Each structure stands twice: as C-alpha cells, then as structure tokens.
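Worked example (supplementary).
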Amino acid sequence: MFNNQQVLEAAGFSKDAARYSMFFDIIVVVAVVLLFGGVIALHCQLLAGDWDFFIDWRDRQFWPLIYPIVAIMFPAALAAVFWENFRLPIGATVGATLLVLSVWLMRWGAWHEFANYPFSMITPAQTVTGGLILDGLLLVFRNYLFVGIFGGFLYGFVFYFVNYAPIMPYYLPVEHMGSVASVADMIGYTFPRSTTPEYIRIVERGTLRTFGDTTVWYTAAFSGFICIFTYLIWWHMGLWFAQTTFFANYTKVKSAMGLKD
Amino acid sequence: MCKFRKFTMIGLAVAACAILSVLDVRQAMAHGERTQEPYLRTRATQWFDVSWSKTSVAVNEEMVMEAKVYLMKDWPDAIAKPDLAFVSLVSPGPVFTRTETYLNGKPARQSFKDLELGKVYDYKMIIRGRVPGRWHVHPMLSVHHVGPLVGPGEWIEVTGSADDFVMPLETISGLKIEDLASFNVANVVGWHVVWIGIAAAWLLFWLLRPLLVPRWIVLQKGREDLLVRQIDVVVGAALVVGSLSLATYSYISASNEYPRVVPLQVGQSTAVRIEQPPNDVFVDVKRATYDVPGRAMRITFDATNNGQVPLTLGEFTTASLRFVNRQSANALARVDQAFPQELVPESGLAINDPSPLQPGETRTYEISAVDVVWELERLTSFLTDVDSRFGGLLFFYEDDGKRHLTEIAGPIIPVFTNEDGVAQRQTPLETALIER
Amino acid sequence: MSTTDTLPGQIAAKAKPDHKVNFTLMFTAMAILYAIFMAYRMYLGAYGFEAGLDSTSPEFETYWGNLLIYQLPVLFGAGIVCWIYLIATRDRNLAAITPELEFKRNFYLALWLCAYTAAVFPLGYAVEQDAVWHQTVMRDSPFSPTHVIAFYAMIPIYLFFGVGSFIYAMTRVPEFSRGISFMHVMGVVGPFLILPNVGFNEWGHAFWLTEEIFSHPLHWGFVVLGWTALALAGVLMQIVMRLKDLFPVVFKLETSK
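After joint prediction of all chains, the assembly is encoded as:
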C-alpha cells in the first residue's frame, strides 16, 4: 500500500536513521495535535464562538457564513506548511478534525460538567467535510490557487448542508405560551444563561425569500465566496510563518557560548 | 533538573490548594452585583414585592418567582435607555429550568422593546428544579447595552437526584420529545463520528509513511513522484467525490425525514400597559448626603399631598434594600417574614415627623437610612461615581393600607467629618428615633 | 541556510559519542503538566460557583484571591529560576560541539517545543471555560475564577516552556545561537503578549460590564496573538533543515544526490 522503503532509500536513510526520523515525526505529530487543538479552538471561540456555543444561535443567515470563514483559516495555513515542504495533503483535515475534537472535549468539560449545560444546547458544528475536500483537491490540482477557488468555495458552501443532518430536528416547531418556537429556541429558553439575554442573539432578520423560502442558499454561496479568499490569504500566512529566517546574533552573546564569528 | 524544581514548587501550590479545599465554604450571597456601580443599582430599576413561592423544591418540581420592577425616570445617562429588554433570572448556570415567563401578564419567552421609564412592570417566572443543591436565585431584567439589572436574591434548595430530571416537549407535528436536555444528541454524535472516522482514515493513510525529514530530503532531490503517487491522487479524488456525495445524501435524507421545520424565532414584543399604583405625593429633594463614617444616607425633601386622604411615609427602598418605618403598621405588613432579612435593615427608616401628611399639606421631611448594609452592598461608592446622584422609591400608605409610590432622586454629597472634625455618627434626631 | 560546512564531524567520530535521545524527561514533564491542569480544573469545579461569584466576599478572597497571589510568584518564579539555570549552565564552547550532540540537542529542542505546545493546549480549554463563566454569571472582577486560571496560571506555565525553549536553543543549539530565529521569537513573544493584552481587555470591559458576546471585537487581540502559534512551523523547518545535514553525519549515510 505504501512505498515507504523507496522513500527512505531515496532519502538515503538507514534503518537506524529511519527510526530516529520516526521519533522526530512522532514528536511533531504530538506537538501539532496539542498546539493546534488548543489554538484553533481559541481562534474559533473568540471569532465565531457564540454561533457555535449555542443551538439557538444557529440561524440560516449568519452562522453558515461566519463559522466556515473563521474555521478555514488555520486549516489553510497548515495545508500550506505540510504541502509545500513535505507534500503531505493533510493540513486542512488536521486543522478541521482537531477543531471538532477539541471543541467536543471543551463542551464536555467546560460547559456540561462544570456548568450543567445540556448537550442538546452545546453540540459543536463540524468542518471536517470541508477539510477533506480541500486536501483531496490539493492532491488532484497540486496548485493552491485552484484549490482555493474550488475547494475554498466548497468548504464554505457545504458547511451548512453537512451540519444540517445532525441538527435538523432542533428546527422542529413547537407551540409555547401561544406562539411558535423551534426546539432550538426552546432549549435556549429552558436552560437559562443569565448573562446571555435573548436579544443579543445575532440571527437572521432577512426579508427576501426566493429559493425555497430560505436565505440559506445565498448564505452558503456567499460563505464559499469569502472562503476562497480566506483560504488563499491564509495559505500565504502559513508559508510566511514557516520561513526559516535567522537574524545575526550579537557578537557578545555568541561569545558567551564560545562562538567566534 | 530545572523542570523538576518548578514542578516541586507547583506541587506545593497544588498541595496548598488541596489543604484549603477541605475547609468549608460559606456560600456566596451575591452574584457579582455588588461590583456594579451604585448608580446602576440605585437609579435604573427598583425591585419590590419580590416573592418566591417556595424555598425548597424537588427536581422537576415547579415554583413561582414574582416581583414588581419600577424603571426610574432618573435613569442614568451612562447607560442605554431600556429600548430592548429580556425578562430573566440570575442563577449559577441552568440549575433551574424556565417553564414560563410573563411581563405584565404577557408571555415573555422573547425580548421586549420600548419599556417606559417611570412605570411599574409585573414580573413572573415559573421555574423547575433541575440540579440538586442550594442556589441563590434573583429576578433580573436584562437591558440591551446595560446588562443585568438584578433584584433581591433568595436561597432555594433543590432536592432529589439530577438524573431524574426530564423536560418533555411535544412538537406541533406530534413528535414527543422525552427530554429536551438530551434530545437528538445521539444523532449529532453519530454524524460526527462518521466524518471524523473518514478523516482519521485519510490521516492514517498519510501518517503511516516517513514524514518530515525524509520527505523533505526527497522533495529537495526532485523525487516528488515518490511522495505523491498516482494511486494517492486517485484516493484523493475519490475522497472529494465521496465527501460531496455523503454530504448531499445527508442533507437530502434529513430534509425528507423532517419536511416541516421553522427557523429560529426572533420577534420582539411590546409590553402591555397595566394599571399603575397611585401617586398623590409630589416630592422635591432639597439636599441629600451620604455620611461615610456614619454609614448613613440622609435626605431632606419637601413632600406635598395632592390627594384626598392622609398619607404616612412607610418605606424608602433602593438597590433592593428596604428601609421601613417601623412605626407604620401598614409598611411593616408589607414585609413578608420570608423575605431575605439581610435586605431589611433592623434600624429601619428614621423620619423627623412620621405623622400622616394631610391632604394639601406640604412638609419638609428629613429622613435617615443608617446601616452597615450600605458598606456590605458596596453602595458607598457614590463617591467614585462621575455623576454623584442617588435614587430610590418612597412608599406612602393610606390608613387602609393602600400604597402610593413616589420616585425620589437627586444629587448626593459625601460627608466625611462633622464641623468639629469628628466623624458624624448619628444625628440627635436619628438617635432619638432609633431609641424610641 | 546551508550549514554543512560548519560540521566538525571528524573530531566526533573518534569519541564515538552517543546520539540516543532520552524521552523520559518530556513524558514526565507532560504528565506533571496535565496533573497540574487537572488540579486547576477540579479546583474550579469545587470553588468556582461556590466561592467565586462575588469578588467582594471573604470566601472569594480565601479561595481565589489567595490562589492568585500565591500562584503568580510561584509560577513566574519557577520560570525565572529555570531560565537563569539554563543560561548559567550554557554550553561555553558551541564551536566544538560534536554532530551527535548537536543532533541530540535538536531533538531536545523539539521536545521543549512539544512541552510548550502541551502547555498551550490548556489555554484553549481555559478560554472556553472563561466563555462559560461569562455567559453564565455576572462579570464582577478582572480576577474572576476563570481569569485567575486562564490568564494568571496557564500563561505563566506556557511561558516557562516557551521562553525556556528559546533559551535552551540559544545556549545549546549552534544554529540558534549563531542567529536569532525570527519565528522562534514570534512563537514565544506572540503568545506572551496575550498577558499584557488582558490590560486592553479589562479596560474595554470597564465600559462594557454588560451582556456577553464572546466574539466581540474587544476579544480579537487574543486571537491575533494566538495566530503566532503558527510561527512554530518556522522553527520546525529550521530544525528539519539542520537535521537534514546531521542525519547523514550521525548515521554515516551516503549522501548521494
């Protein structure tokens, strides 16, 4: 299935060297999991957190727009680092999967265990599908520009639709005190968050309904459009951060370590 | 070695915390409202007639929290007007669930717009016990760009087992939800497991190869063909097609399963008007001081009775503190024994002339509200406000117990010492009245 | 940057130096780290709602005020002690280092960075925990229980490893001593700046002691500083490029083109 031996031979690596190389790989894999599991979650909490925290924030106009745009950033940067340097088409999937895994961990520990929020209110969204599409297309196109245009668009576009199957039952209508509410609204109402009043929800207020009485098709397309540029910009962010620039150290500092030149 | 040194020190800190942790904790009496600026608490809302139908409920058992909230006409400039508000409660997380909420008798699941200053609103919330424990619960009005405006709190005991909690619900289409807290969670987890499983397979497909240094060297040698083979590209293309197919399938199947869904509901209501309590007293504040060492608020004001019956000053309330004229039976009758006693200072309200204010009469009142509670509630930082004003409500009573409600507000001046350079404790009037 | 010409390979071959890397220290460090994080989480679970709701209360002082004032000198003090130790025990003759030792030290640098990432992950968790706090209870202090943990415990802990990795590299790894790695500076200073950025955050909240939108622009400073975590990719590349030269020498490989 793999041509590992051929690769090692081409690299001129002996068995022992390959073993140490594997140790190094393992260190880096662990570091990537820990670093980006934490940082991507932090990034999404602070840029789009509210839409992901609560089921009663998941509208059709802002949630599918804002969340994928925010969540494509690190996957794009990681894709650039791993592809350009190692020809590994895994960066986007790594970023997206780490995000959903660490967010599940945090929802469980911080929301459910600590503060008694029910899982029906706080289940996260997933962008893994988008990550897989980006990585797959990177292999096919081998060109980040095309991946950005097609993959970036698909990443933003499919977000709502792949998250719809898991959470759709939360949009079933119920009658409560003489008016209609979705189950999601009821969950938000029933389990109080004292400093998250109902009116701060930034959810849809649109008036025009053309495609099947929903704004979601526009939103998905718009999200895809922005994701194209986000992907391209963050690809370059990744490359910029992966630079190997050394500035000259001061002579006095170097001489403290016995370096003359 | 240095790492171990650090860990030893941290270990000691953790041990110290562990030792601390066996000490008993006296549960907090407040929810942070004490660090709100006093102007927010004394000049925005006044809560009164607050009641809790029970102080102990079982898991799943309902209780009612009722209150009246008055929005001050002297609403502070530093905060937004109550153009958008939400009727809520303060509790440490969803230890209670909300069943029904009403403002002025109308359902209040959503927010209200255009609340009016100078009006009393009726607050009512039905809550159910969810998590066993002893919890401090306050009624609250959230106002947009202002934040939580909190009423007095009471300890409520929730008994039973958290596992017994259920919140059943039936959808319009007839689907019976057994428990809102766990509804559909398995479906979400299932889909996430499917996608993460695919991602894990894809990642393993790449991670089971030599990764960083060898690939870098091979790439530099121009042997990209070894790193990305034809078969890899085929797998990648299949991944894209497969992902899109599964995404499409999942969307279509879910849509077919639940054809009738609604978006999130976001409308706002306008509160209905209710009959306001009578107010036959006109109040004109002459001077108000806060005596810092004496912990006393003293207010001098002219009051005119414009009504037809005599009225007795019974209570001064602000920031949920109730200074009650202990000589007025009508005022005392309004103090429910179950009401949190720490909010009803023993010293009461000292009044220079507590006799009834006759119809047509104008009288200069000197009242004093003296208690350490000003310090405890951190309301003495009148001194650090940029806008040194106080506010509150005066309750006057007719002989038959009918209550008149009058807003009182004005500038307040801090007093640190008396003329002799000695801190003022009590005026002779206060001493006499309190002793009497 | 090619550095093949700087390898003193011949000297090393005679002494048959050992290139074996010892992972025990890192595993121990990570186990202790996560024990500390678990202890913090359990402490929050026990005394968060119990004693943390009202910053004016005596129990808040006992459980959170005291924790804050004791942990700050302990955590920063531990860092400073470690950093001074690393400088004091520096390699004073890096010019004569064997390739085996340099190989090993590059691995140890990677392990330092790995421990650094292990210390950064809990910050992500702690910030989510802070979100829970702010969405649930009234903001009443810059030193709320979750802030005491997220800002004043998690940050000093990861600084220990971040700054430690930088000093380790500069005092023991020739490449990182000859030159200052731009991305290593970014990767350490960026996350460090999250701490002073708390000043901006709390200043903003003085105006905005209100309802919480967690993705409010007031919080974006943390995000942008968090992006600098990507800079560790640059350090990774610097290590990879050096290992590319060291592998053939240490393992006597044929370096055919």
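Two points are worth noting when inspecting this output. Residues 230-257 of chain B form the longest helix (28 residues). Chain B touches chain C through 47 residues (CB under 8 Å).
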